[in-house]
Amino acid sequence: MHSLTTHWQAVKRILHYLKSTIYHGISLQPSTDLSLICYTDVDWASCPDDRKSTSGHCCFLGPILISWSCTKQKVVSRSSVESEYRGLANAASELI
């Protein structure tokens, strides 16, 4: 019964958030620019508990954001270069 109260509070919080962001959105506009650009960034060993890196990327088709992600990497990298390479590999697989 206690978890029901917790879930109900979460539902009310989500509904309150949706109500306050009803006029926000993503605007899509026609564009002739079809360049595919992806930006990546990695924070090496950012988690003090397990020393795993956090990586993120965002991909654009012209001026339009088509994909983004921010996740903790699954393995511990030995160097910042290795963690950057893992982040780049994740972004490249998303593009493919």
UniProtKB/TrEMBL annotation:
Quote the protein name from its UniProt record: Mitochondrial protein
Which domain of life does the protein's organism represent?
A: Eukaryota
